[in-house]
């Protein structure tokens, strides 16, 4: 709330010190008109500063998305494929050790171990996860 007061005070001070001789003294009419104009400009200036912040955040986000989409692919040596995945009749089926495709689930992870690279320690270890066919969107 102090910023509008400081802007008004500074404007009137500069007018009184430097422009007093060319346009006349600082009158009540000039002060009230100036305060009304400052009041009208307050909202657009706040909106403008918010818009600059949003544009800066958008640019940063777009740069991050661009970096993600143009980055190199995953190191293929860090992925260990234990099961073969195939498509049949427009659904994903996983061939497990039992050989049965009708277990009622689309994806199953048994004793899963996940890390960022093959050299790192596992971040997720001994993961059991089943995604049922009716839950797959």
Blueprint (SSEs and pairs):
Blueprint: H1 2-18, H2 20-23, H3 28-69, E1 85-88, E2 91-94, E3 105-114, E4 124-132
Antiparallel strand pairs: 1-2, 3-4
How would you describe this structure to a colleague?
The chain is of the alpha+beta class and 137 residues long. Helix content is 46%, strand content 20%. Helix 1 packs across helix 3. The protein is rod-shaped, with a radius of gyration of 33 Å. The model is unreliable at 85-100 (pLDDT under 50).
Tally of helical runs: 3
- For the record, give the distance between the C-alpha atoms at the N and C termini, rounded to a whole number: 51 Å
Mean pLDDT: 75
Q: How many strands appear in the DSSP assignment?
A: 4
Strand share of the residues?
Answer: 15-25%
Note the overall shape.
rod-shaped
Task: Sum up the structure in keywords.
137 residues; alpha+beta; two-stranded antiparallel ribbon
In summary, what is this structure?
The protein has 137 residues and is α+β, with helices and mostly antiparallel strands.
């Amino acid at each position: 709330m102090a910023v509008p007061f400081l802007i008004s005070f500074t404007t009137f001070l500069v007018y009184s010190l430097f422009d007093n001789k060319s346009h006349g003294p600082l009158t009540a009419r000039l002060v009230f008109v100036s305060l009304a104009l400052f009041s009208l400009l307050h909202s657009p200036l706040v909106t403008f500063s918010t818009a600059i912040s949003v544009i800066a955040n958008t640019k940063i986000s777009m740069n991050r998305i661009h970096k993600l989409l143009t980055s190199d692919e995953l190191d293929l040596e860090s992925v260990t494929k234990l099961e073969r995945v195939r498509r049949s009749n427009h659904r994903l089926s996983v061939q497990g050790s039992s050989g049965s495709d009708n277990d009622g689930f689309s994806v199953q992870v048994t004793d899963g171990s996940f890390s960022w690279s093959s050299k790192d320690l596992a971040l997720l270890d001994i993961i059991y996860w089943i995604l049922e066919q009716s839950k797959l969107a």
